[in-house]
C-alpha cells in the first residue's frame, strides 16, 4: 500500500492515512487502499481501530481537489459513491473506530471522522465543510452526518457559510469528545481503544450495532433492535464469563479479557 499504513498492537489496530505531501487528501487510490485495509482487518484478534493521519499538520484535508476538478456530473456522482461506500464500511464496521484527528479535518476529512464511532482531536485541529466555496456540496456524507451529530441548524450554518471550527469550538458543539495537546493525542486514543478492547467483544459489537441501527428507526422499532442484540449476548462465552466473574467476586478475574467467541 502506498498511502495507508496499518499496524496492530495487541487487540488495537491503527490505520494511518499517509499522503503527507497533500495533507492526506483523499484521492481514489487512498479510498481504494482504505477499503482494502478494512477488508483485511483480522476481526478474530482486533477489537478496536484507531484512524489517524500522518504528520502533525493534517488529519485529512479533504477529497482530492485536483482529481475532482475535471469530473463530469456522472463522474462526480460516482466519486461521491466511492467515498460514501468506504465511509459506510467504516461506520458499519463490526468493531468501534476512534478518529484521532491530528490537524486539518476539512471536507472529506471532517466527513471521514464523522463516519467513526468516536472523535477526539489535537489542540491544533481544524474542522470544516468548505465545499460550497469550491462550488460543490459536501459529498462524502457531510450533509447527512453533520446534521445528525450536532444539530440540523448548526450543520446548515457551518455548511452554508463554509466556516472552519477550531478544536475548542468543535468540542463545544459536540463534534469531538475531547481535545488533547498534539503529543498526547495518539496515546489517549490508544488508551481508550485498549479500554474498549478489554470489554466483552460480542457485547461491544452489539452495542455499536444497536446504537447505529436504532438511530435510523422510530423508538418502537429501536427497542426491538436493542432487545434482539441484548438477547444475542446470552449463552455466549462472553456473557457466561463476564457474569460468572462478577458473581464469584473475583476482582482479578473480573478484569480479565473474556475470550472472543465467533458467532
Ligand atoms: N486536495 C488536494 N491537494 C490538497 C488538498 C486537497 N483537498 N488540501 C491540501 N492539498 C495539497 C496542496 O495542494 C499542497 O500541495 P502542493 O505542495 O503540491 O502545492 C499541499 O497539500 C499543502 O497544502 P497547502 O500548501 O495549501 O498548505 P497550507 O498550510 O497553506 O494550507 C489548508 C492548508 C488550509 C488545509 C489548505 O491546503 C486547504 O485549504 N486545502 C483544501 C481544503 C478543502 O477545501 N477541503 C475540502 C475538499 S472538497 C471535499 O472534500 C469534497 C467532499 O466532500 C467529498
What does this structure look like?
- With 263 residues, the chain is an alpha/beta fold.
- The chain folds into 2 domains: 4-197, Alpha-Beta Complex (2-enoyl-CoA Hydratase, Chain A, domain 1); 201-255, Lyase 2-enoyl-coa Hydratase, Chain  A, domain 2 (Orthogonal Bundle), CATH 1.10.12.
- It is 48% helix and 16% strand.
- It has 12 helices and 10 strands.
- The chain has helices at 28-39, 65-68, 73-91, 108-114, 142-149, 152-161, 167-172, 182-198, 201-214, 219-233, 237-247, 251-254; strands at 4-9, 12-17, 48-53, 58-60, 97-101, 104-106, 118-122, 126-128, 165-166, 178-180.
- The strands form 2 sheets. The chain has a 6-stranded mixed beta sheet, sandwiched between helices. Strands 4-6-8-9 form a 4-stranded mixed beta sheet.
- Strand 1 and strand 2 form a beta hairpin.
- The protein is globular, with a radius of gyration of 19 Å.
- The two termini are 31 Å apart.
- The mean pLDDT is 95.
- Acetoacetyl-coenzyme A is lined by residues 22-23, 25, 61-66, 83, 104, 106-108, 111, 130-131, 134, 138-140, 142.
